[in-house]
Amino acid sequence: MKRLWTTFRYTFQWFRGQIFGWGVGIGSLGLLIVAFYKVFGERQADFMKMIESYPPELLAFFGTDKQGVLSPEGYLGMYGFSFLPIIIGFFAVLAGGSLIAADEERGRLDLVIAHPVGRSSFFFGRTLAFIGGIMSILALGWLGFCVLLNGSSLDITWAEMALPFVSLLAQALIYGSLALMLSMFLPTRNFATVLSGLIMVVGYILSSMASLNPSLDKAARLFPYTYFQGSEAFTNFNLSWLFALIGASFIMFLLAWWRFVRRDIRLSGEGSFRWQLPLRFHSKSA
Amino acid sequence: MSSISQISNNPELAIEVQGLIKSYGKVQALRGINLEVEPGEIFGFLGPNGAGKTTTIRCLLDMIRPDAGAVHLFGINPQTNPVSVQAFTGYLPGEVQYYENMSAERQLRFYGDMRNGQVDWQYVHELAERLSLSMKQAIKNLSKGNKQKIGVIQALMHRPKLLLLDEPTSGLDPLMQQEVLSMLRESNAAGATIFFSSHIMSEVENLASKVAIIRTGEIVEVAETSILTGRTMRRLTVRFKRPVSSQSIENLPGVEVLDGSNDTCCTLQVTGDMERLVKALGDYPVLDLETYHPTLEETFLAFYK
User: Fold this and answer.
1) pLDDT value for B283
2) Residue pLDDT, tens place only, A17-39
3) Looking at the complex, does the CB of residue B25 fall below 8 Å from at least one CB of chain A?
4) Residue B24: which of A10, A116, A272 has the nearest Cβ?
5) Mean pLDDT by 10-residue block, N- to C-terminus, for chain A (286 residues)?
6) Residue B304 near chain A (CB below 8 Å)
7) Does residue B195 belong to any structural domain of this protein?
8) Which residue among B207, B227, B247 closes a domain?
9) B282 and B192 within one domain
10) Are residues B86 and A106, on separate chains, in Cβ contact within 8 Å?
11) Contact of B68 with B21, CB cutoff 8 Å
12) Were B151 and a residue from A62, B16, B69, B96 both cysteine, which residue would form a disulfide, CB within 3.0 to 4.6 Å?
């Protein structure tokens, strides 16, 4: 347990800068969004004129429609929660893909793991620090959204405001665990990060467009973004979706651990396992 | 399918490697290596790049898993109990990399914490002083040699009973090389077993009591350093009282007449038994005979001819 704690402590310390940067960034965004709600209320007619000029596809990207934007939930959904999963998702993908593979590719893991830590303790120490980092960023973000809440006309409590952030946590965990798992199976962390990021962005586009084109709904359901609960969480928080996402993340963390404790530790610049396509190309000599 | 033995034949040995096989895809890096290192021994591991030295060392510490064969360090299998093995081992990789923004001291404290803080910090500062290493400077600002010094210190700082070192003096200037070698001798005198790979023959010759030579994943020779340098190949310079034809000497098996020889003086390189040559020289008017042992480097190169 002490070995796991040591790894956790150091990894969490290394996350401090990122926690501050991402957390304060999201928190500031929340602060502005809540502060501007008053202006939005006062000049609703002007805003509506602007929103009516938007094509429906653009509003779909913001997860709302012309009517929905009038409510406090719709306002928060449009200006805040529609793209927060992508913002926190980018952090999760970058941090998850680099959590172990970055040290491995830079040749540092070789010496670290030669110390009496144990691969499992090392893995779970780092994973817990990663989860702690995400929770800290979201906590700072949540605080930013809450600070001006009492003085605003948004009829939302601090506890209610936490619900979309719980859903954001599940989103971050699933993208982070996916990137971590892929970084353990694929030859490079860049490959793992790009693939995870692609899954995130494609899911966002499909889920947003599915509200306009129902034929996309089936495909969208395969992607985690569909199960994000932004402003919907205020009125109808779906616990099954939350637990399904957390459960899937847990399974991917376990798969990443399973692979990590079994495989060779690569040296910097060394690809100790190669991907080989089942197809063989034979060049014909002239 | 891997077949990995769990039982040590001799738990008294510091390192016991039996039939170690490791492949990277189609490349067979180790082809059934057998090694035995006695406790308290300084064991040199020689071989050219890509021969399998680093792969062997990394198998010893469970960084990589062999396809077949067995490894035991003081009777413990590192695959089943890596933490126990790593606790009594000090390791220095061939190319050591750090967290570049840390200072040397912070990096060493990190490694110390990874060992549950079981490090004598007075000893660490002593080692740093001997190696003239500035502990406060950020690692990114240090030269390759200074980075290597941090690696040496982290390997020694918990006074391990086994040291696994992959080219320990790489990147160090000759003065620091000598300092590191004397540190290793001191550790050995205090009871540590040392297993190290090196390209510097004089270093192996000076430090190691036993040497193994590895070529394309196979051990081609294991011997005490003194025996290895003293046998297998010798050089002789023979001076004759009058001009002679050295035809019958040249025809002897294992004898090669080297360039620069003439009919009154010839330099010979002899591989294997000397007896036939000495008998053949009895038929010649020998004025003077000078024999000398080759260096380990010459012996090493002889294995790769």
Assistant:
1) 85
2) 999 999 999 999 999 999 888 87
3) yes
4) A272
5) 90 95 96 86 76 73 67 83 92 96 92 94 97 97 93 88 96 97 93 96 90 87 92 89 96 97 78 51 44
6) no
7) yes
8) B227
9) no
10) no
11) yes
12) B96
Nearest to A268 among B82, B95, B113 (CB): B95
B250 vs A264, residue with greater confidence: A264
Contact B82 A110 (CB under 8 A): no
Q: Of residues B67 and B283, which shows the higher confidence score?
A: B67
Q: Quick check: B116 contacting A, CB < 8 Å?
A: yes
Which amino acid would we find at residue B230? G
Query: Nearest C-alpha of chain A: how many angstroms from B196?
Result: 16
- Tell whether the model's pLDDT for residue B294 goes beyond 70: no
Report CB contact under 8 Å: B113, A268: no
**Could you report the per-residue pLDDT of B44-59, keeping only the tens digit for each?**
998 888 889 999 999 9
Answer whether B82 sits within 8 Å of A115, measured CB to CB. no
* B73–chain A Cβ distance below 8 A for any pair: no
Query: Which residues of chain A neighbour B83 with C-beta distances below 8 Å?
Result: 3, 116-118
- Please check the confidence at residue B285 and state whether its pLDDT lies above 80: yes
> Residue B263 is part of a domain; what is its CATH number?
3.30.70
Same domain, B170 and B47: yes
Is B272 domain-assigned? Answer: yes
Does the distance separating the beta carbons of A112 and B97 come in below 8 Å? no
Same domain, B221 and B98: yes
Residues in A touching B24 (Cβ below 8 Å): 272
What is the nearest CA distance from A261 to chain B, expressed in angstroms?
A: 10
- B245 Cα to chain A: minimum distance (Å): 56
Q: 3-state secondary structure string, A33-83?
A: HHHHHHHHHHCHHHHHHHHHCCCHHHHHHCCCCCCHHHCHHHHHHHHHHCC
Chain A nearest-CA distance from B118, in A, is 11
Is B125 found in the same domain as B203? yes
Q: Which residues of B touch A3 (CB under 8 A)?
A: 83, 114, 116
Per the structure, the count of domains in chain B is 2
Task: Let me know whether B118 and B253 are in one domain.
Answer: no
CB contact under 8 A, A112 and B114: yes
Whether B222 is covered by a domain: the verdict is yes
- Rounded Cα distance between B64 and B82, Å, is 11
B97·A272 Cβ contact <8 A = no
Distance from CA of B158 to the nearest CA of A (A): 11
Pairwise CA distance, residues A86 & A88, whole Å: 6
Chains A & B: contacts with CB separation below 8 Å: 70
CATH at B205 = 3.40.50.300
Residue B268 inside a domain? The answer is: yes
Instruction: Tell me whether residues B96 and A111 touch, CB distance under 8 A.
Output: yes
pLDDT tens column, B271-280: 767 788 888 8
Domain that holds residue B280: 231-303
Do B178 and B264 sit in the same domain of this protein? no
